[in-house]
Records
---
Amino acid sequence: SYLVILLGCLAGVTPLEVMLGTAVLARWRRLLLALVPGLALGVGWDAYAVHAGEWHFAARYVLGVRIGGLPMEEICFFLVIPTCAVFTLEAVRRRRPEWRLGDEPQAERE
């Protein structure tokens, strides 16, 4: 099911928090700033597409819990996948500190 795949994604990257000390969860405000735009756009787009009849979700892959007309799993998708991306990015940043992203504090760039 859709939810199992999302849980698998989280299970794959969450250990990075402990193993590499990515501190993603400790910087939850920063994580939220990364998640909210994609969540708003993604859910809005999907809600429009479902309402317009352009998109649907197969009942056999979702639990049936709907929020605002969308399956719970679809809303979770817009939270889980970007969170996994942030975990991965921060893990790479930990392993390769010389790779600059441009959001480092000024003192770190010099």
---
Amino acid sequence: TAYESSLGLVGSEMCIRDRQSRSNSVTTVLTGEIDVSELRRIAESEAGLTLGVGLDEFADRAIRIGHMGHLNPPMILGTLGTIEAALTKMGSPMGSSGSAAAAATIGAAL
């Protein structure tokens, strides 16, 4: 998926590794050493994007991205671009662009 394609940019990974066990309505991403509270704060207060909190043992090391109902490429790319912008503001080290990787995945599926 586009979300999976974008994960390598900050060394993050899917919380649920088995693709068949993943939800169709939310993606939980493990964020490694990133300060998830700061990421969520910047995304919400400065860009209007609300990211879900990690649950239970993942509370301090995961974000959840909701994708219920109608979802289109601009929504996915906007979400990923906003997360990437917030990480940039935080000075988080990133590899290549996760948004670009997601766009390539979406482009191949169009």
---
Amino acid sequence: NYATISGNVNIAAASGLPGDYSIVFTSEDGNTFTAGISGDSYSIELPAGTEYDVSLEGADGFSISSESTLNVTESSSFDITTLHDTMKIYQITKILKVGYMLIPAERQTGT
């Protein structure tokens, strides 16, 4: 029993993403299924009743920033947002800086 999974791919935060990348669905038992991109969308037939990890292929330095696990039970839509990995580093750094600023002075070492 197969299900059609289709969706849009948001690449707004993925400047420089190669045009020939694809989306890979890896099942729990290690089988992989690859969906090509057409414009800003994709469609693929996947065996139903399985959970898949979703990743990018042919896009070194980029990753999926939206949900990257999909449980396929029936045909459905699954939109994907991609991100340039340097944006992840920037976001983590920003969180760390803000987090540090939120520590009360009396709890900081050396005060």
---
Amino acid sequence: LHVRSRRQRQMCKETEVFPNPSNKLIKIQPYKGWKNIQVSFFNLQGKEILSTINQTEIDISSLSNGLVLMKVEIDNNVKTYKLLKTNKVREKIGTLKEKKRVKKISTRLS
């Protein structure tokens, strides 16, 4: 049984990553009041392929196409997302409708 603090539940509920799938730019909308954010991208073999600190817009154009795991750590709270990197250009990136289509998967990485 994994018990989360109120702050961890808030982070998981309010943090958004979009668009997904994406071809170039990923935007992270963290919960209000965040101080530190670290984002790491991993291939399916578990190798870290990109890492950023305190950036909410990340250029992923250098990543290979396919499924990528994205670990978002905000103020020591961790959430993992599945992200599809593709070459296809999407229209209306960042709209509320697109944000709602983002599929989130929460896990705790230790």
